[in-house]
Amino acid sequence: MDIVLLYIGAYLLGSIPTAYLIGRIVRGVDIRGYGSGNVGSANLYEHVGKKWVYPVATVEVLVKGALPILVAVHVLEISRSSAHLIGPGLLAISGNNWSIFLKLQGGRGIAVTGGTLLALTPILAVVCAIISIGGWKIGKSSGLWVLISLILLPLWSYLLHENLLDQNLNMVWYSLGLLGIVILKRLSANWTPFPGGVSRKKVLFNRLVRDRDVSDRTGWVRRVPDRSF
């Protein structure tokens, strides 16, 4: 019963739309109607103010991402080698990406993902951060390098599990589940309709690789979608 409550709590905690609430409180706007339409820190930065990114990111990393796992380990005393520890992190990310409070819309879950990795295996969180940030600094494409870091995550998990992790192969399965969630979120893109005049294959490629519908990042993050909420 404790496991079930933990899983439900992780999803509900992840579902709290932090960036959406800040947009409503600070500017009275629904950030789903601005820029990328994403309920996350990047869209908040562009359309509400950069000073709000830091508190939102902190909540998403430490509260929505790390807390469910820390509760599982330190309160419920679930062993770090237990497969039950896979659930809270994946459900917290799923809640963030498909929030029950926003008609199953939400953010991309990157900050929440970082929080779960930090709580599970800090070394893998650092490796992913180095690849994502380093690649972005070099190639100026955060979406691509985040994807690359997550594609490599199952490999790092497998190579390091005997020496650095006390979780058997659970982190490998966790990493694969995480990658699946991220890919599904990118392709579904908050249920945004396909834009006219562009082939679906190209849109899906852009969503998967660039994490947006079009090649032009500047135009994308500054746009105002036609649909209303």
Structure description:
The longest helix has 23 residues. With 229 residues, the protein is mainly alpha-helical. It has one domain. The chain contains 11 helices and no strands. The mean pLDDT is 88.
| SS-based class | mainly alpha
Strand content: under 5%
Rg is 17 Å
Q: How much is the average pLDDT?
A: 88
Distance between the termini: 37 Å
Number of separate domains: 1
Helix content: 55-70%
- Ranges where pLDDT stays below 50 over 5 or more residues in a row are none
Q: Kindly state the number of beta strands.
A: 0
The coarse silhouette is globular
From N to C, what is the helix and strand string?
HHHHHHHHHHH
User: Count of DSSP helices?
Assistant: 11
Largest pleated sheet: none
Q: How do the strands and helices of this protein lay out in sequence?
A:
Layout: H1 2-15, H2 18-27, H3 41-47, H4 53-75, H5 86-97, H6 110-120, H7 122-139, H8 142-160, H9 170-188, H10 200-210, H11 217-221
Provide tags for this entry.
229 residues; mainly alpha; 11 helices; globular
